[in-house]
Amino acid sequence: MDFSSDTSAPAHPRVMEALARVNAGHQSSYGNDAVTAELRGLLARTLEIEDFDFWLCASGTASNALALSCFCPPTGAILCHAEAHIARDERGAPEFFSGGGKLQLLGGDGAQIEETELRDALARIDHGFVHETPAHVLSLTNLTESGTAYPAARIAHYAALAKEAGLTVHLDGARIANALVSMGASLADMSWRAGTDVLCLGLTKTGAMGCEIIVLFGEARTKFNELKARAKRSGHMPPKMRYLAAQAIALLTDGLWLDLARNANQRAQEVANLLCRRPGTELVHPVHGNEVFVRLDDETAGRLRDAGAVFYTWLDGSSRLVTSWQTGADTIDQLASVLD
């Protein structure tokens, strides 16, 4: 019963099979290979658009930091939620990669930015006032760090507000497959159709060994050469990119990534239902994906840990339990027997 993180799960077998298939012969380096070219076509079908550029990274932190550094200068700021992964969990990587860009933290329930806070922050932008740091980017996260999902319509609304103020819109999609399944949206609806300029499409938490895709849409494509230069300078230009591309192909083909996210989401709902049958257990946030945040009484928490369940205590004192593509019915049955 490992509910520590979806990154604790192994890579999906189809990912490993894909890696074995491409592990033969010679291919050109740095993304100029046939496998990465094949991925472009698959991405175009998945995104329902041809007007994009993309880059592959092995970690979400690298993809977020690289993407943001192309749109936030050292003298600028990035608007994000105070609980966003780029603020809480990336050890200053966006600031480091941008050469000093600042994160401007906003509040809101469920780690979703509250609209009045966003409007206030946008209204304060003054590029002519040298004593404050003007925002250049709005960064949203889906799923959020509290496991909640922005609907596509809300992303579109916030993106429109940000663009009216001259900002670029970045979407951290480390768990975007879970958000898509939960909200019943397409990737197009939640990204470029909603006004997103740069998407970090996460596959590692969904079943990859390590694969994140930075996707630039529309006018943001003018930054593609800069993105590649920054990737090279920071050590994130994989010489054998075909191995990253193969992982993405395995997961995106026939919608496997969404099927895996669907399983993880379903298991999370089952975990939440079981836990909430216990007196004194309280859901802290709605379960929109594969993360469950609950307040457990000491007896329940102790019983779970004594049975070998692995989960984390979160910043607010709640417990976070995360399911993955591999969480099966047997794990749910085991959890039920412990809680009975």
UniProtKB/TrEMBL annotation:
InterPro entries: ArAA_b-elim_lyase/Thr_aldolase (IPR001597), PyrdxlP-dep_Trfase (IPR015424), PyrdxlP-dep_Trfase_major (IPR015421), PyrdxlP-dep_Trfase_small (IPR015422). The keyword Cytoplasm does not apply. The keyword Transmembrane helix does not apply. Residues 2-298 form the Aromatic amino acid beta-eliminating lyase/threonine aldolase domain. Its cofactor is pyridoxal 5'-phosphate. It holds the Pfam family Beta_elim_lyase. Keywords: Pyridoxal phosphate. It comes from the Bacteria. Gene3D superfamilies: Aspartate Aminotransferase, domain 1, Type I PLP-dependent aspartate aminotransferase-like (Major domain). SUPFAM superfamilies: PLP-dependent transferases. PANTHER family: L-THREONINE ALDOLASE-RELATED, LOW SPECIFICITY L-THREONINE ALDOLASE. Homotetramer. Belongs to the threonine aldolase family. This is L-threonine aldolase.
